[in-house]
Amino acid sequence: MKKALITGASGGIGLEIARRLSQQHYQLTLVARNEQKLKSVQEQLGREAHQILVADLTIKEDIEKVSKHLTENSYDLLVNNAGNGSYGRFTEIPIGEQLNTMTLNMEALVSLSYAFLSKAVSGNALINIGSLLAHSSLPGGAVYAGTKSFVANFSESLWYEYKNKGIFVSGFNPGAADSDFHSNSGSDTSAFPSFVVSSVSEVADEFMKALAARKKPRVIQGFKNRMMLFGFRFLSRKSTINIMGKISPGLKA
């Protein structure tokens, strides 16, 4: 039986990916900071088949705990899904909150990737969940967008480093999804134009296709999102930033 570890598995995209992998008979280790939610997910998916690991990946000690777990156990797949962000003007968001976002979205992701890849073998896969904003920008979400640009470049570089070893690495970049991420960030998906919002089910569908295909170092989820980025190629960078600023939930009056 294949084994996978998923961070941020207690809700949203992470939970939906966990459901799909469970259906494909993966044995899962579900990581999140909310023990009650994790236990609920474990019950839904099957307590005997899956385990939970409670960790807050904004805390150094918990990052080290999960990294140690990865070095001491063998996994076929690591999904670095945990992430957060805050909407608002840069200096109106507490700096500590934004530094926590950087710790979770970058430091924890790099640490877990390092632990996993240090003992990965041919056939294993690492998928880092980024964002459409890795390839755009978001006034009103500057730090979040910056961290996701890091994830995209980091993942693509690792894809090249490990492809000849038979280890697949990819950055999977969903657009706005109808999940609890946006409410946790101080807004909700209704703040985005409906044409850019996908359901978590649609996101998980494309994730599973990307995992099965194991071809692309960068996957942009959603035809609408791919078309939007394609259209941006014909605009100046200034114009695209202005567009993103106008639709940003972080700058709504």
TrEMBL record:
InterPro entries: NAD(P)-bd_dom_sf (IPR036291), SDR_fam (IPR002347)
CDD domains: SDR_c
Pfam families listed in its UniProt record: adh_short
GO molecular function ontology, one term from the record: oxidoreductase activity
Entry keyword set: Oxidoreductase
Family to which the UniProt record says this protein belongs: Belongs to the short-chain dehydrogenases/reductases (SDR) family.
Protein name stated in the entry: NAD(P)-dependent oxidoreductase
